Amino acid sequence: MTPLLWTLIAIQIVMGVFDTFYHHEFTERLAWRPSQRFELKLHGIRNMLYALLFLLLGWLEVYGLLALLIVAVLVAEIVITLMDFVEEDLSRKLPPSERINHTLLAINYGAILVLLLPVLIDWAMQPFGVTVVYQGLLSVAATACAVGAALCGIRDFAAMRRLGRMKSVPAHGLVDKIPGRKTVLITGATGFIGSRLAASLSGAGHHVIAVIRNPAKAEMLPPPVTLITSLDQLVSDTHIDAIVNLAGEPIGNGLWTEAKRAKIINSRIDMTGEIVKLIARLDHKPDVLVSGSAIGWYGLWADQVLTESAKSHACFSHELCAAWEKAARPAEELGVRVVCLRIGLVLGTEGGFITRMLTPFEFGLGGPLGTGRQWMSWIERDDLIRLIAYVVATPDLAGPVNATAPIPVTNAKFTEELGRRLHRPAVFRIPGGLLRRIGGGLADELLLGGQRVLPNKALSRGFVFRHETLRSAFEAIL
Q1: Is 195 found in the same domain as 129?
Q2: What distance in Å separates the CA atoms of residue 247 and residue 291, rounded to the nearest whole number?
Q3: Which residue in 2, 410, 415, 424 has the most C-beta neighbors within 10 A?
Q4: pTM above 0.85, yes or no
Q5: Domain encompassing residue 57
Q6: Residue 2's pLDDT is what?
Q7: Which of 286, 290, 469 is nearest to 383 (CA)?
Q8: Which of 121, 140, 164 is the last residue of a domain?
Q9: Is residue 473 domain-shared with residue 400, that is, in the same domain?
Q10: How far apart are alpha carbons 200 and 165 in whole angstroms?
Q11: Is residue 72 domain-shared with residue 27, that is, in the same domain?
């Protein structure tokens, strides 16, 4: 085997490692997506074939029929890869970087076959036999790659089995508090919360009008859903019973530069203002506007318990939420009941902040942030959907409503419970000073600050959480 062939194999390995860890583990999180069970199975089989090939090519020269077996393995890899391409197109939308990487992998693999097949044909023409060939560092490197590929294969099979044990609650049963058949307009309908809400409402027989900015994301919403890209597309005689406003620029996907802060605020104010204008021109006004907000409205507190009647501390999070709630209030003057949901940290494996924690925790690299004493007021995603439905169906519920579970926990307790559920240690504490130097205000307010929030209004009106404790929530979603 020539140095050029080994160079191409090394390039293939590097691109494969990048694809596995950057795309499959960290950005796409395939190991936690039940829809990707078959894809993980294909990945597992392919990784095991790679492990076999690395060992054979690193240590042996095989002749006769044995060389044809290697050719059969290469052909099997091609078949599995083609099946993988089809499965990916059917089950998920690949990011551009993954598509480019897959294209380069395919081209490079073709070049490897061009150089490798003549060698294997030559071996196949010789009498049956096996020769051990030690190639120094190449043999050592091939062994290391074989071990890595086998471990990745084991990881894929284990994740596939875990996904088979994860059970999803039927979406339609989450909104049973809403009577009859309602027409509900949702902004932010392709997001982590909005997509589940849309699926719940449409599954229960309600008419959903989803506002989406990116038509390419339409496939995320199960039919039947009416899709629009602008509120201007709705005529004045459109009948809408309720509006749920969840649209806004993500706050945790980048540093809070001045431009980022302006984008975060303006995206929420502008959309909420458009909703108020829509309500003003509708012949039939909706009964309720459920507008998003967050527990960041309260600002940063230490251990003080915060209910809807608590005051606020000044910070960017408060500025953002206060502006968002203020933009929704003019709807009250139009005769519409307005509820501002002050949402806590939403738990689920398909999105939200916890998805960034699962991979490091699963590999035993998780732990508290800073001192770990900061409070985390959380809510399981399906409980949030149920609370939204409860708010829509409760005509005398208005104003701010805390959307958090009744039992908040400290960051230390949160990481301990997550580690326990994943059967991993959670001892790698990340220093607060390091987080502040990297994340600035984002780290101060979202990671190291916290609020101890209680859902007084929801509890006093009789809303029952399915997951009051963090352990119960983790058992449901993990």
Answers
A1: no
A2: 9
A3: 415
A4: yes
A5: 3-164
A6: 84
A7: 469
A8: 164
A9: yes
A10: 22
A11: yes
